[in-house]
Amino acid sequence: MGQDRGKYDFYIGLGLAISSSIFIGGSFILKKKGLLRLARKGSMRAGQGGHAYLKEWLWWAGLLSMGAGEAANFAAYAFAPATLVTPLGALSVLVSAVLSSYFLTERLNLHGKLGCLLSILGSTTMVIHAPQEEEISSLDDMARKLVDPGFLVFATLVIIVALIFIFVVGPRHGQTNILVYITICSVIGALSVSCVKGLGLAIKEAIGGKFVVGKPLAWILLLGLVACVSTQINYLNKALDIFNTSLVTPIYYVFFTTSVLTCSAILFKEWEHMGTDDVIGTLSGFLTIIVGIFLLHAFKDISVSLATLAVSMRKEERPFPAANGMASHSTYELLHNDSTEDMEDRELGLPFDSVSRRNGAMTAQ
């Protein structure tokens, strides 16, 4: 019965993670459209420190959508391991890319479609090889994990890096380097996932009839979650306002997922209970997702489709009519004749404008 209950929780967490990706992917589009509307109105942009987006209903709709996605994600961490839930955030990238092609006039070419396919395959691989058993099952277990020396060192380094980027690197390079604000969101996100995991366990215990309101750890995790999420929203808004959505979304996914997987390996130690084949499968799936996201966005501005690919292949197969330097020779003769005619026109006293117009007509013909 315990094994059946574990599988039941696993699939509940999987469904919540997928629904979370759908809500979060849509939230990027709504918030971006709201920021674009503010930019057209001439309001101070979020990247410049403005907060006019608080009066835009589209931005609030995006925030509510992200809140619903985060709530589903919150619940997913209570049922499934972080190694499974976090990488499935790639589905939000797919949703964002598809919706961007319809609502933000951003095209989805052949590379993008292949990237979507690879991301889905990578996510499926990670679901198959993800650990289906929880390393911790109560708030007391979470308390023992949080005081582990390895996690304390990791959390200290994360806070130091975040403070350096916020107060030193951000004011100097935040407007020109896309990695600055995304790094802040990603490293803080690793701590927010840990808080979410602990609060999810506390809610499960409360539903089960245990008294958790009087435990200080539950309130510490709640305050930590509020601080982390507020920081993430602030700097993610700045990144979305300054840079293209097609760049922010995949880079944020890779950085955030890498941070969370590192935190999960240190705090929850889920990788210790995975076999070698599952570890290799999980890493391979994650790398496949990264390649898919790269294809989805790196060649986004290149117009490539199956039709244009077939036409280019047919052009390459056509034989050239001239060989052994004949084409170069004929081209030289044509240029030589044109220059000779220009010199004759100049000798006859024709104005330079008429010569230019005639040469332009010849070029067009």
From TrEMBL:
Sequence intervals crossing the membrane: 12-30, 57-79, 85-105, 151-171, 178-204, 216-235, 247-268, 280-299
Membrane-protein topology: Multi-pass membrane protein
Alphabetical list of InterPro entries matching this protein: EmrE-like, Mg_trans_NIPA
One MF annotation (Gene Ontology) recorded for this entry: magnesium ion transmembrane transporter activity
Gene Ontology cellular component terms for the protein in this record: membrane
UniProt subcellular location: Membrane
Sorted UniProt keywords: Membrane, Transmembrane, Transmembrane helix
Assigned protein family: Belongs to the NIPA family.
Protein name (database record): NIPA magnesium transporter 2
Organism: Myripristis murdjan
Biological classification of the source: Eukaryota, Metazoa, Chordata, Craniata, Vertebrata
Chain's gene name: NIPA2
